[in-house]
C-alpha cells in the first residue's frame, strides 16, 4: 500500500490530518504555501472538492500538485459534479499521479453554492463510489471490465457522529465499510460521549475513526456555520462558551484541544478544520503529540 | 397527474407578438385540476388577451389534450376558428401542447410550464412523489421513493447534510431516508436497508420514451 496514511493507521500511530482548499483561480502559490505550512504537523492534507458547491480548481490537479511537493494528500471526491465515467477517469488520473488517499463523498447540494442554476449529477452515491474504488483496486472498472493495471487507493468516507437521528445513518455507515471504506473522517465533533459511542458502534467492523476537530473563532462564526453549512450543527453550549469568553478566538482553540485530547483516547486520529486559521494547527498538533 | 403552472401573462403576450388573432386551447384533465388551463383559466385568458388588444377566434377545452387523435379530431371540429388564428395558445401540459403542434401547422404558443408528476395533497396543493424513473424500487424502500423524495436521489441512505431529521436541500421537509427508516422500523423490516443498492441503470430513463402494447 503506497499510502503513508494507511501505513501509519495500520501501525496504530495517532494521525493528524488538516485541510486545504484548491484555489479559485489558476495560481497554486497560496495553496501550496498553506499546504507546505501544514505538512510538518499533518500526516496528510485533505484537498476539498468544490466544497459547499463553490467552484474551485479540481481536487485532482491540486492533489497532484501536493504529491509533486512531497506532501501526502487525501483527495476528496464528490458525486455531485461527475457521472460514473468522470469519477473513474479522475480516479485513474489520481492513481497515475501518485494520489493514493481518497475520501469518497456524496457532496453538498448545488443549491448552497455559487452555481445554483447548475445541474447536480449524483449518478453514483458515496457507497457506490466506494464500491467503484474497491473494484479499481482489484483491477476492474465498476462494471467488472479489466483495467490496464490495478489502482492502490486507500479509501475513506464521511460520518456524522453527533447527527440525530443517528440510528438512521448506521445502515449506510455499515455499507460504506462493507464497500471498502477503511477510515471515517468525521464531521466536526463537540460531544465526547457521542464520539465515544460512535467509535464503539463502528470500530468493531475494523474501520478507523479520524475525528473532525473544528476550530471556531467566535460565537458569531458558530451561528453562521449553523445557518449556512450543510450537516454541521454546533451545540448551543459551545456557542455560549464562546460568547462568554474574554478572548473567543483562544477559547475556540481551547475547545478544539479538549476534543482533540479526548479523541486521542478513543479513536485513531484527528482531522483539524482550521477554517482559514492555519496557525492553530501546529498548536493543536503539539498538544496531541506531546502525550 | 401532470402539474403545470401558467407562464406569466407578459411572457404569453410577448410570445404572441406578430399576430393579433388567437385560438385558445385548454385541457379538461390535469390542467383543470391544477388551474392552469381549465374552463375558468381559458375564459380568464380570453379576457386578458382581449384587453391586450388580441382578437380571440375561439376557445376549446379538450378532454385530455395528451390524447393525440382526440385533440386532432376536436381541432378539426373547430377548423374555421383554428384557421382564422395566427396562434394556437395551449394551456395544458407539455405533452398536450405537442399534440396540438402535431395536429395543426398554425404556430403554437405554450402558455404553461409543466412541473412534475404530482400527487394531490388537497385542493390546490401538489407534491412530487414519483419521477417516472422506469425502474420502481418502492418495494425495497417502504413505499417512499428515494429517487424522487431525496433531493439528491441517493439509494443507500441519507447524505451528510441531514440535520435533526430534516433534508439538507429542502430544510422544511423531512429527510426521505429518515421517513424510509422509520417506516421500515415500524414494519419490523429495517434489515432491508443493510444490503447495498447498486448504481442506477439509466437505460430505463432514456428519452424519448415509447411503449407499444402487444395484443
UniProtKB/TrEMBL annotation, chain A:
Q: Does the keyword Oxidoreductase apply?
A: yes
UniProt cross-references to SUPFAM superfamilies, sorted A to Z = FAD-linked oxidoreductase
UniProt entry tagged with the keyword Flavoprotein: yes
Pfam families noted in UniProt: MTHFR
- Which catalysed reactions does the entry list for this protein? (6S)-5-methyl-5,6,7,8-tetrahydrofolate + NAD(+) = (6R)-5,10-methylene-5,6,7,8-tetrahydrofolate + NADH + H(+)
Question: Which key words are in the record?
Answer: FAD, Flavoprotein, Oxidoreductase
GO MF term set:
methylenetetrahydrofolate reductase [NAD(P)H] activity
What is the required cofactor set for this protein?
A: FAD
Pathway participation: Amino-acid biosynthesis; L-methionine biosynthesis via de novo pathway; One-carbon metabolism; tetrahydrofolate interconversion
Coiled-coil annotation reads none
Task: Give the UniProt family note.
Answer: Belongs to the methylenetetrahydrofolate reductase family.
PANTHER family of this UniProt entry?
METHYLENETETRAHYDROFOLATE REDUCTASE (PTHR45754), METHYLENETETRAHYDROFOLATE REDUCTASE (NADPH) (PTHR45754:SF3)
Q: What is this protein called?
A: Methylenetetrahydrofolate reductase
Q: What organism, scientifically named, is this protein from?
A: Pelotalea chapellei
From TrEMBL, chain B:
Q: Which Pfam families match?
A: DUF5981 (PF12225)
Domain Methylene-tetrahydrofolate reductase C-terminal-like per the UniProt entry, residue ranges = 110-202
- What InterPro entries does UniProt report for this protein, alphabetically? DUF5981
- Name of the protein described by the UniProt record: Methylenetetrahydrofolate reductase C-terminal domain-containing protein
Q: Which organism is it from?
A: Pelotalea chapellei
Lineage, opening ranks: Bacteria, Pseudomonadati, Thermodesulfobacteriota, Desulfuromonadia, Geobacterales
